[in-house]
Give the backbone structure.
Amino acid sequence: MVAGKEVSEGVLKIESLVEKPKPEEAPSDLAVFGRYILTSDVFEAIDKTKPGKNGEIQLTDALASMLPEKNMYAVEVHSERYDTGSKIDWLIANIEVALKRSDLQADLIEYLGQLKLDIQKKKVKQYSA
């Protein structure tokens, strides 16, 4: 997640970056979705970044460490956001994208309609995870 001050319409000067914070700890509702234009000094920052969650080195953490010395900017993109690290959001994202595709939409709508009827009639089997 990213927070900053708007410097022109839809452009923010970044003041903070956080990798996958809990919703209540997020600095804003603006998500980073992995499209960057970076300078080569990011590699030194990555080398100095300690592993975080799950023992992974996060680019977001490296970028955040550079903020005191480097100006960074974000461009707002208005789009849907899904947390594909969440099983249900991953499924929802796939369904919503498929519903926008002309080659899948009709068949998927038919399937979902039948699935809804089956759920209402309790014909859907439950499986334990």
